[in-house]
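pls design
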């Protein structure tokens, strides 16, 4: 009898957890769509006004407009240059460990 009660209670808890998970996913999706629409329209408000949050300050320029260019630009190098740099770093580190071992 206790086994059935145990299985029933965990089944109920599982259904409650799944229901809550689905509800949170749906509400998160609606919030995300609403925020995306407001960012495209340029409506930036703060929490204190009861509307959606403002974008992060690092995404705004000095005048408060949203920055549209990429924030991280990486220089592309070819494989041979990368290998040469890694080999140079490896050779420098192995030479310094040999010197440290000789000093001891």
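designed seq:
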């Amino acid at each position: 009898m206790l086994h059935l009660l145990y299985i029933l209670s965990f089944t109920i808890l599982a259904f409650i957890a799944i229901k809550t998970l689905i509800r949170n996913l749906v509400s998160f999706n609606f919030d995300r769509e609403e925020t995306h629409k407001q960012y495209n329209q340029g409506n930036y408000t703060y929490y204190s006004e009861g509307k959606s949050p403002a974008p992060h300050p690092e995404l705004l320029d000095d005048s408060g407009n949203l920055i549209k260019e990429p924030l991280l630009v990486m220089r592309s190098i070819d494989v041979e240059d990368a290998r040469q740099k890694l080999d140079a770093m490896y050779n420098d580190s192995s030479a310094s460990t040999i010197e440290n071992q000789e000093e001891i």
